[in-house]
Specification:
The protein has helices at residues 15-19, 66-76, 84-96, 102-113, 118-125, 128-138, 172-175, and strands spanning 11-14, 26-29, 144-150, 156-159, 185-193, 196-206, 213-222. It is of the alpha+beta class.
Length: 227
């Protein structure tokens, strides 16, 4: 998600519906008022991020930009999704975040959104993988507007440009890729962004040896420049 005008997003996840429990635990996430966050006392886990009720093949998938954008990312992005730098960086963060709690995610996310946690922001924008992504963006001749990578919790690993928040696990870019499967691709609606008509192309990143999902990549594509 790129920086835009402030807004509130509230998502309530009913954990009981996911695990078949008799009593429900709720997790409320807001992107602008973290004092209102309610936490379930459980460790963060991708299974807590409820899948969107709209299947990936519906929503924006019938719009005319979807096929050319999908063809573009399959041809130009898919070939380097097994790059060792990409895989190793994601796996390293997955290991560090193996036991991260929802409360810890919320604290990190708040510092990222409010731009008070400079160390966290710098760690995602100034690392070897971020440099690698910027090289890919620069080589795309204006077709790629932004790129960022998230781990198996939906937390930013590396990014070419500032994102609004640190945690993407409650959004379609994660729910319709990582939670769907190792080869999932989701092309979101196109919308103006700083004068450019951009659609986010979201892809699961899988481990080249196990074939299991380890994270996701989000590519902002300037749809008018896709041939």
């Amino acid at each position: 998600m790129r920086i835009s005008a402030g807004y509130d997003v509230a998502i309530v996840v009913t954990v009981a519906s996911l695990f078949g429990c008799g009593s429900a635990l709720a997790w409320k996430v807001t992107t602008s008022n973290h004092s209102n966050i309610q936490h379930a006392k459980v460790e963060a886990n991708p299974t807590l991020y409820v899948r969107d009720v709209v299947p990936p093949e519906i929503a924006a998938q019938a719009q005319p930009h979807v096929k050319p954008v999908k063809d573009y990312v399959e041809k130009t992005i898919r070939p380097w999704l097994a790059d060792p730098l990409l895989i190793d960086t994601i796996m390293s963060q997955n290991k560090r975040h193996a036991h991260i709690t929802i409360a810890e995610i919320d604290r990190l996310d708040a510092g990222f959104i409010e731009r008070t946690d400079k160390q966290l922001i710098d760690s995602t924008t100034h690392n070897p993988l971020a440099d690698y992504l910027r090289q890919k963006k620069a080589a795309a001749d204006g077709v790629i507007f932004e790129i960022f990578v998230v781990d198996n919790k939906g937390l930013n690993v590396a990014q070419t440009d500032p994102t609004l928040d640190y945690m993407q696990g409650d959004e379609a870019k994660f729910q319709k890729t990582f939670l769907v499967g190792p080869d999932a691709v989701f092309i979101d609606e196109a919308a103006p962004d700083n004068g450019v008509n951009v659609a986010q192309a979201d892809m699961t990143i899988k481990h080249p040896k196990t074939g299991k999902p380890i994270g996701a990549i989000i590519i902002g594509v300037a749809v008018d420049k896709v041939k």
